[in-house]
C-alpha cells in the first residue's frame, strides 16, 4: 500500500518479493551470501504453498520470523554444511547456533 495525495494505492504482487539476509548468519535455510529458502517465496510450488497474488508482505515477515525462531528444514536445506553441523552437534547449538533473531532483511519489489 502506498499513500499518495490522500489516495491509497494498492499494489498486487504477481511475483514474490526478492528477500535477502544482509547480516551473515549460519542457518540451514540461508546461504552465506544471504539467499533465503522459504516456500512461500517460491514462484511455483508443487504443494501449493508458493507465492500467490493474495499474499502480502506481512505473510513474508511472518514466514521469516518462523524461519528464524522455529522452522528448520533439514529435508531440503539450502546450506547443507549448516544443516549437517546442526544435526551433528545439537548440544552446542543451544548456546551458539541460533541466537534470538537480530537480523536485517532487504525487500525488493
Describe the structure.
Belongs to the ubiquitin-conjugating enzyme family. One of its GO terms (molecular function) is ATP binding. It holds the Pfam family UQ_con. This is UBC core domain-containing protein. Residues 1-109 form the UBC core domain. The protein has 109 residues and is of the alpha+beta class. The strands form 2 sheets. The protein has a two-stranded antiparallel ribbon. A two-stranded antiparallel sheet has the order 3-4. Mean pLDDT is 73; it is low at 95-102. 17% of the residues are buried. It has a single domain, classed as Ubiquitin Conjugating Enzyme (Roll), CATH 3.10.110.10. It is built from 3 helices and 4 strands. The two termini are 12 Å apart. A hairpin with a 2-residue loop joins β1 and β2 (7-9).
- By CATH, the architecture is named Roll
Ranges where pLDDT stays below 50 over 5 or more residues in a row are 95-102
Domain module tally: 1
The level 1 CATH classification is: Alpha Beta
Oligomer: single chain
Rounded to the nearest angstrom, the distance between the terminal CA atoms is 12 Å
- Give the strand tally: 4
Strand content: 5-15%
If helices are DSSP runs of H or I spanning 4 or more residues, what is the number of helices?
Answer: 3
The gross shape turns out to be elongated
What's the CATH H-level superfamily name?
A: Ubiquitin Conjugating Enzyme
Adjacency order of strands in the biggest sheet = 1-2
Assign the CATH topology.
Ubiquitin Conjugating Enzyme
Instruction: Determine the fraction of residues in helical runs and give it as a percent range.
Output: 25-40%
